[in-house]
């Protein structure tokens, strides 16, 4: 082996570790000592040897990295990320979103067709998004197309242009340019795509035909559809989007599956465990359907969410601890009868203003105050005019914003005024450590946050779960989240995946889901040399300054994690190293590419 390698004059990059998760020829994953040789010219893996070879085995011009005892993993593939560019770059963008991904070992992200403007529902919209991505991506980025009423004629051109799949909503998406689809629209999309190598995905929430809850739409409804409780209480919000929303939608999708028996159907961000028997039964009957769940459904529980902490709002909602435990049981069974095959972030950020955070959570970077933006969230339209004022003496529990009907629901007019001075923040009530305030000292961290200040107290509906925008920021945090909670569950004798399982669900299976497994999601000869270097022992606390997405708002702030990504490599080149200069982005400029190859599998 040494003689053969030394005769090879091509410069090499070598990564070795006593703890490497490789992919065998039959696609089985194996934790083993290994040495991986990479071509820096092609960015491909040249060889995988199941032992740690010394640096002397390679030519003198080889870049040799023995990473032992850290884990050498294939780069993660996050198949559900909202990058929001162009159009809503106040919320997120290619540069910041992919930096956050790279910092967490995610070397490929797949961008959702919304909330960018224009959305990726036409070929022209896709081309505009590609132009916006140029020169900005720190990791490789693939793209989904969208299914909306009236765009069936755009679907096959988008397949030819290289989108990895399609997504539609069975309930209001929250943005006007991406309306929900009807059963007729779903049927038309299925028949249009039935012979294409693609995945048709659904936000599976749907209003049951008879219900006492219509989610956010309750704000303009008459009794008995009004919410039964305090709008600032998470339990009220949770009850407004019951499991029936998910089960009814999934039953509708399954009922139409016969129209396209070969087409891969997929349920995004599954939350309610009541849907699992429906999906399992459909799979037993031969329906080609899978589901994903998200890090926040596996790591956060309704039982622990404080009233007014709108950082936790998302749709479908975070449910009970009992529900979470059942999700963990299902993912442990992913290799067998389980229907949840992948775990993703559903990174869906917005500006801090749109989260309507209560005062003790209202911190933003000095340069992150954004222009006011019109938006809606599941039937609620919101504007933030700067020329109105607010009586600070108003109690949030006793007053509601002015409601003005619009075509899509409600306009919520919120006031703003001059920012208040910097103030000391109380401890984050969700944290597991005492040093977790929003303005925590970052002196001992490699990437301290910019100076922060409180947003003004301007609104009577701060902490209102029904008025706040729904979405959770977490791209790049997935591996520490899963590893931390799985370690704790295993210590208590509960079902939990190991690192091999996490690689299967966050890299291998996600790459397969989007038709990229021929090059992504595996440490295997011929694949892209995408790697995640993971220290499974390091304990650390997420602080605002270590959030690399654009808006530093996340329910994960102040949480203590076990396990941390130390390095990320994209196609044979290191792009991130924790603690290095430049915020850890050692290359100095973006390395990622837009993935536009036509899907073939």
From TrEMBL:
Instruction: Please indicate if the UniProt record lists Hydrolase as a keyword.
Output: yes
User: Amidohydrolase-related domain spans which residues?
Assistant: 71-204
Provide ranges: composition bias, Basic and acidic residues: 388-405
What InterPro entries does the entry give?
Answer: Amidohydro-rel, Amidohydro_3, DHOase/Allantoinase_Hydrolase, Dihydroorotase_CS, Metal-dep_hydrolase_composite, Metal_Hydrolase
Q: Which SUPFAM superfamilies match?
A: Composite domain of metallo-dependent hydrolases (SSF51338), Metallo-dependent hydrolases (SSF51556)
Q: Which key words tag this protein in UniProt?
A: Hydrolase, Metal-binding
Amidohydrolase domain sequence ranges: 499-576
Checking PROSITE patterns in the record gives:
DIHYDROOROTASE_1
Q: Which Gene3D superfamilies match?
A: Metal-dependent hydrolases (3.20.20.140)
Pfam families in alphabetical order: Amidohydro_1 (PF01979), Amidohydro_3 (PF07969)
Q: Where is this region: Disordered?
A: 368-409
Question: What cofactors does the UniProt entry give for this protein?
Answer: Zn(2+)
Record flagged with keyword Metal-binding = yes
| Name of the protein described by the UniProt record | Allantoinase
Organism name:
Podospora comata
């Amino acid at each position: 082996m040494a003689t053969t390698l030394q005769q090879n004059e091509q410069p090499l990059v070598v990564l070795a570790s006593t703890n490497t998760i490789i992919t065998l020829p039959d696609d089985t994953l194996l934790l083993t000592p290994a040495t991986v040789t990479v071509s820096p010219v092609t960015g491909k893996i040249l060889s995988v040897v199941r032992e740690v070879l010394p640096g002397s085995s390679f030519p003198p011009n080889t870049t040799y990295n023995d990473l032992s005892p850290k884990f050498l993993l294939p780069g993660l593939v996050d198949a559900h990320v909202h990058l929001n560019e162009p159009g809503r770059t106040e919320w997120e963008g290619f540069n910041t979103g992919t930096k956050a991904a790279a910092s967490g070992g995610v070397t490929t992200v797949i961008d959702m067709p919304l909330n960018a403007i224009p959305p990726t529902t036409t070929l022209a919209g896709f081309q505009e998004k590609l132009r916006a991505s140029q020169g900005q991506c720190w990791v490789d980025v693939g793209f989904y197309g969208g299914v909306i009423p009236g765009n069936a004629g755009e679907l096959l051109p988008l397949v030819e242009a290289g989108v990895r799949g399609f997504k539609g909503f069975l309930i209001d998406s929250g943005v006007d340019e991406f309306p929900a689809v009807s059963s007729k629209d779903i049927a038309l999309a299925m028949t249009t795509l039935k012979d294409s190598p693609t995945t048709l995905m659904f936000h599976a929430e749907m209003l049951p035909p008879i219900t006492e809850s219509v989610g956010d739409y309750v704000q303009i409804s008459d009794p008995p559809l009004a919410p039964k409780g305090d709008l600032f209480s998470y339990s009220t919000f949770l009850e407004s989007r019951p499991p029936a929303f998910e089960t009814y939608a999934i039953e509708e999708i399954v009922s139409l599956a016969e129209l396209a028996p070969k087409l891969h159907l997929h349920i995004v961000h599954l939350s309610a465990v009541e849907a699992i028997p429906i999906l399992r039964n459909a799979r037993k009957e031969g329906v080609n359907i899978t589901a994903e769940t998200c890090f926040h459904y596996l790591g956060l529980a309704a039982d622990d969410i404080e009233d007014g902490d709108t950082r936790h709002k998302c749709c479908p909602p975070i449910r009970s601890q009992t529900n979470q435990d059942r999700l963990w049981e299902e993912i442990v069974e992913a290799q067998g009868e389980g229907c949840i095959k992948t775990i993703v972030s559903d990174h869906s950020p917005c500006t801090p203003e749109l989260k309507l955070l209560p005062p003790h959570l209202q911190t933003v970077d000095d340069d992150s105050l954004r222009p006011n933006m019109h938006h809606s969230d599941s039937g609620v339209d919101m504007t933030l005019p700067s020329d109105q004022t607010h009586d600070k003496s108003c109690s949030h529990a006793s007053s509601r914003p002015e409601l003005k009907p619009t075509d899509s629901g409600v306009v919520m007019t919120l006031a703003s005024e001059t920012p208040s001075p910097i103030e000391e923040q109380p401890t984050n009530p969700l944290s597991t450590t005492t040093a977790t305030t929003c303005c925590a000292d970052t002196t001992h961290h490699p990437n301290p946050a910019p100076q922060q200040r409180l947003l003004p107290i301007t609104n009577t509906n701060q902490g209102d779960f029904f008025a706040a925008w729904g979405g959770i920021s977490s791209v790049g945090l997935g591996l520490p989240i899963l590893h931390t909670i799985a370690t704790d569950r295993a210590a208590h004798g509960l079902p939990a995946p190991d690192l091999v399982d996490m690689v299967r669900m966050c890299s291998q299976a996600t790459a397969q889901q989007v038709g990229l497994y021929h090059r992504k999601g595996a440490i295997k000869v011929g694949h892209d040399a995408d790697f995640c270097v993971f220290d499974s022992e390091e304990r650390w606390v997420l602080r605002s300054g270590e959030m690399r997405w654009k808006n530093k708002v996340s329910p994960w702030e102040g949480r203590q994690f076990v396990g941390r990504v130390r390095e990320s490599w994209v196609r044979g080149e290191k792009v991130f190293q924790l603690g290095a200069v430049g915020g850890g982005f050692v290359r100095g400029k973006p390395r990622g590419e837009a993935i536009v190859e036509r899907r073939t599998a």
